[in-house]
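Final report, closing paragraph on structural work. Over the funding period we assembled a curated collection of sequence-structure pairs, and we close with a single example.
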Amino acid sequence: MDIDLARQQWDDGLRRVESTRANRTRYWLLHGQVDAVTSALRQRLGATYTLHELAEEYGAADRWARDVVDSIDPEAPPAADVGTVTDAAFHLYARGAQDYHP
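Its predicted structure, as stored:
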């Protein structure tokens, strides 16, 4: 996946999560999901990675991110905002890339 396009999608995801700030319950639910996806990214990529490697993993995230989010509360209905949560998690994790620049 193109890194610039991926970063734009990641930025949009974080913006969508932050736009829920007025609804504190929803906001904290989404942040918990973002944390879970970020933790999964850390396990998948480790501590040393590039934006290119992160963008490649993003291309495959639809295969694993839903499982991560849904595993938080297996009794709850499937999460509706997995794409937004995934994008926000990738945005936050991108900051640790070796070649990150704002």
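The chain has one domain: 3-94. Residues 51 and 97 are 6 Å apart (CA to CA). We thank the funder for supporting this effort.
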